[in-house]
Amino acid sequence: MQRIPMIAGNWKMNTTVSEAQKLVKEMLPGLEKLGGVEKVLCPPFVSLIPVRNLLRGTSVKLGAQNMYFAEKGAFTGEVSAQMVAELCDYVIIGHSERRNIFGETDDMVNKKVQAALKVHLTPILCVGEKLEENEAGRTREVVSGQLRAALVGITAPGGLVIAYEPVWAIGTGKAATGKQANETIALIRSTINELYGEKVARNVRILYGGSVTPANIVEFMPQPEIDGALVGGASIKAVDFYSIVTQTAELGKKCE
């Protein structure tokens, strides 16, 4: 069996609508030529419809950066899973910036995952430890705990994608080593095995995220447990993102 690698670009709070359209037009011709890897762009909410229009009929998928768990109501500024599902294939849930800056709890993340799956929207679920937790040797405890909490009450995770993003590596320029990332992702896969069995664990795609660049993607993709990357800063540079996707496609990825 084969897990198709995925490279997802999280643009965060970058690009105006016109800049987003320009970026997609720069990326798209090159990305369309690349097979063997799933490509996902996650622009800000304001650009989802314009970007969707540009991606229609192409092999590049669209993702949102966040959503709220309620179906509708008096939640000013929020966007529901149903709203996102009309536009996107994927949604990022539990990103460390949502947890640490906006105070999202494990319970909120769990509710968001449940809401996304209910409308057949595929979550890219993020987990990862802070620097002090890493230095205290608590990586396994924290990452496994976040994952289990996010999946409470979920009996069928569908096509769930997981992203391991050590908080100390996000936007810092300090990436984990390939070996470090692979070891933690192996733990994630083992936890999924405990929760859902070997078949699900074998097929779930687990990405690495944290200062991924064209220079270091070759360190991560040959690792047996790593199925791609959730890319931040490099995803808003057309040349860099194309290089990361190209190298991933060339390296390929197979299940053991």
Structure notes:
This protein is an alpha/beta fold. The protein has one domain (6-251): Alpha-Beta Barrel (TIM Barrel). Helix content is 43%, strand content 15%. The chain has eleven helices and eight strands. It has helices spanning 17-32, 48-55, 81-85, 96-102, 106-118, 131-135, 139-150, 178-196, 198-203, 217-220, 238-251; strands spanning 6-10, 38-42, 60-64, 90-93, 122-127, 161-164, 205-209, 228-231. It has an eight-stranded parallel beta barrel with strand order 1-2-3-4-5-6-7-8, surrounded by six helices. The mean pLDDT is 94.
Count the beta strands: 8
Strand fraction equals 5-15%
Count helical runs.
11
Enter the CATH topology name: TIM Barrel
The name of the CATH superfamily reads Aldolase class I
Oligomer: single chain
**Residue runs with pLDDT of under 50 for 5 or more positions:** none
Strand order of the biggest β-sheet: 1-2-3-4-5-6-7-8
What structural class is derived from the secondary structure elements?
A: alpha/beta
> Could you give the distance between the termini?
8 Å
Rg is 17 Å
The CATH class turns out to be Alpha Beta
The averaged pLDDT comes out at 94
State the helical fraction.
Answer: 40-55%
CATH architecture: Alpha-Beta Barrel
Main pleated sheet: 8 strands, parallel, barrel
Which series of helices and strands comes N to C? EHEHEHEHHEHHEHHEHEH
Shape: globular
The domain tally reads 1
